[in-house]
Amino acid sequence: xxxxxxxxxxxxxxxxxxxxxxxxxxxxxxxxxxxxxxxxxxxxxxxxxxxxxxxxxxxxxxxxxxxxxxxxxxxxxxxxxxxxxxxxxxxxxxxxxxxxxxxxxxxxxxxxxxxxxxxxxxxxxxxxxxxxxxxxxxxxxxxxxxxxxxxxxxxxxxxxxxxxxxxxxxxxxxxxxxxxxxxxxxxxxxxxxxxxxxxxxxxxxxxxxxxxxxxxxxxxxxxxxxxxxxxxxxxxxx
Length: 238
Ligand code: PXP
Known about the structure:
Elements: E1 3-7, H1 9-16, H2 25-35, E2 39-43, H3 53-62, E3 66-71, H4 75-84, E4 88-91, H5 112-123, E5 127-132, H6 136-144, E6 149-153, H7 155-162, H8 167-182, E7 186-190, H9 198-202, E8 209-212, H10 214-223, H11 225-235
Parallel strand pairs: 1-2, 1-8, 2-3, 3-4, 4-5, 5-6, 6-7, 7-8
């Protein structure tokens, strides 16, 4: 069964525009859990623009399903991950000026620090995932650096899907997933996914889970969060 991870960052963004407490991302995460989501994903950014440190502590206390902690590879974040012990840590590139994560990690600039932090977290039983482009040599490098999972960046596929030019990118993703799986990595996918562009990816056997944020939060405004989770789970074959 393919798994559904729900990214709750956008709920925190909405809360933060009024500098208050509503809507509460933890309350939404609890509803997602109740409705059948398989994990909750959040990105604690260096500038704390959406998720805050207290949200991370509250998620740890209140959520029973797995947590996927997205972060830049910094000592501050890795120390917090060791305290929180999420099921998955996903290392992502992070730029202050970007609206959202714009692409995968460039492992050609991969540092000793990334490798060491990966080992530290894996040794503690945490699944360490790298958010990367669907590219064979990057996947091989992720494996060599000790990652136990990869999350394939689907942003380009999602853009091309809008203009019906996604076939080549879809094949690229399928090949990348095959390669990652053959190396023994868990394979996740995420960015820009929605109910329209998801079904073609669901047919890729080696893809185990999907990380979806913006579309789920948007759909929830119309259909309610529980119905929305049901729709996405059904799309994944539940
Ligand atoms: N995966 C990663 C690594 C991300 O950075 C994001 C965006 O926060 C997502 C998945 C979810 O993307 P979207 O909000 O477009 O569904």
